[in-house]
Amino acid sequence: MADSSAPITLRTRKFITNRLLARRQFVLDVLHPSRPNVSKAELSEKLASLYKTDKDRVVTFGFRTQFGGGRSTGFALIYDDEASQKKFEPKYRLVRSGLAAKVEKPSRKLRKERKNRAKKFRGTKKSKAAEPPKKGGK
Amino acid sequence: MEDPIDSLGFDGVIDDMTASISSARETIQSLKERPDSLNSKDGISLLSLKHHILLSYLNSLVLVSSRRIIGHSLSGRAHPDQHFSAPDRPSRGNGVGDLVDFMVEGRIVLEKVRILEARMRYQIEKLVRVAEEPDKSLNPIDGQPTDPLAFRPNPNNLMDNEEGAGTTSGPLSEHISHRTSHGPHDATFGGEVYRPPRVAPVPYNEKKSKSQLRKERPPLPSALASLSSDPSRPHMESTSGLGSTPSLASGRAAYLKRLNEFEEENFSRVMMKKSDAKRRARDEEDLALGGSLAGGGAKHRRRAGGLEDEFGDVLKSVERASHRGSLGGMGDGYDELRQRAKKADVLQRSRQEGVRKRASPRDEEEPAGRSKKRSRFELEAKSVKKKLKGRK
After folding, report:
1. Is the CB of A75 less than 8 angstroms away from the CB of B267?
2. B388/B95 Cα distance (integer angstroms)
3. CA–CA distance, B247 with B226 (Å, rounded to integer)
4. pTM for this one?
5. How many angstroms separate the CA atoms of B129 and B174, rounded?
6. A8, A11, B210, B296: least surrounded by Cβ within 10 Å?
7. B contacts of A13 (beta carbons < 8 Å)
8. What b/e readout covers B13-38, taking b as 16+ CB neighbours within 10 angstroms?
9. Do the Cβ atoms of A64 and B269 come within 8 Å?
10. Side-chain-facing half-sphere of A130: CA atoms under 13 Å
11. What are the helix and strand counts (H, E) for chain B?
């Protein structure tokens, strides 16, 4: 079914060199006639070889397949260097490409409950209030 | 030491004083001839109260100013001469301070009188009008002179007189004629009954809202839809081979095109709800496969393939034409009502009643209204079923 060795055609449209954000950005048309979809990793590899950059500098996102398959359109950015990428990319895309770690937080509800419980105490006792009150037996 | 201008001024002042004193003397003479006007045995009216207080005020003012000119201080107060138990003991004595007190009191009373006068302005104006034109007309109903100070409604005005509106009492008639002389539409009010204009009754047609009208409008024919965009090329090339550019045909198609352009311009995807995103994907597929998305998306999408899409506008306009033709022929306003009264065709009715029957439980009795007429086939089928059940 999915012929992963079938050739893909990449076409770039609306190419802009964005000096302010230290990147090149364009709309990417991918023609993949015998494949359902092309992964972002593969696309960034192909683009890196096309534009002679590191594959970590290439960021692709927003792909939508058009009418029944065979063609998808999305966006791609190529940063000049890692520092500018870390500075200008939004956090979720950095996490996607592996350059930043995901911040593990307890759920929003849990955070708010803890805060409200801590409101009742003052000073170091706040840490004691972090746990919910033990119910009965234990 | 004296300037010549000052003596002239002084002469002028003296002349003024002489003139005012002579006019005051005339008034006093007339008052002397009618001594009963100063009699306040029956009580004092509001209007004459003002005069009396002003008079006393002036009196005290003159005395105070004369004392001041001489050089006395204004703070000496004295008790009145009479004893406390005397009935006509005045409230103040004769000292200068008492005069000042009286002036203050008079001022306050005058202010209050002004407020009361404002409340009674209507009555006072009527009095003034009566005083200006003394018109003693007789009331035809009672035979008594019309009391212009009677503030109740005058039934004489409502009566149908031969002379018309002229027999109303004087000041009131003036008021009415004053009112009717205004305005371009001058209704001849001379006692006639008002007859409203006769208009034939018109049936009430509910006005359809704009969105409803837009939905129910027949869709633009796809052949003509492209003319507005490029009239020089009425036949346009298309990849699907079904017609002219679908993206220019309907509003939905144009919106999707615009959305796509926006996304590409701004390098980001628009946030949408899941349902919206699904609808968008479906519409884009339809467009890509050649449909023009005309005819509203609200209609059920179970239509077969591209035939309905291609000829959708033609088919819909045919329906509409038959609907409109009957109206064009007869054209009176009762058509909508007649349409509503007609029974729908058999297919519609069977669908309706099928739904109704399924909705209500079977145990219920027959409805009070007209039940469906059972055909012979149905009766026989029922009896057969019963027999089968009984056999089991």
Report:
1. yes
2. 129
3. 10
4. 0.41
5. 11
6. B210
7. 264
8. eeeeeeeeeeeeeeeeeeeeeeeeee
9. yes
10. 7
11. 14, 0
Nearest CA in chain A to B282: A67
Q: Which of A52, A7, A15, A61 is nearest to A34 (CA)?
A: A7
Are the beta carbons of B267 and A66 separated by less than 8 Å? no
pLDDT tens by residue, B123-170: 888 888 888 876 655 555 555 556 666 666 767 777 766 544 444 444
ipTM of the complex: 0.82
Q: Which distant-in-sequence residues (6+ apart) come within 8 Å of A10 by Cβ?
A: A28, A29, A30, A31, A43, A46, A47, A50
Rounded to 5 degrees, φ, ψ at A80 are: -75, -40
CA B2/CA B7 separation, integer angstroms: 7
Specify whether the CB–CB gap between B172 and B157 falls below 8 A: yes
Residues of B contacting chain A (CB within 8 angstroms): 263-265, 267-269, 284-285, 287-289
CB B21 within 8 A of CB B15: no
3-state helix, strand, coil in chain A (%, to 5): 30, 25, 45
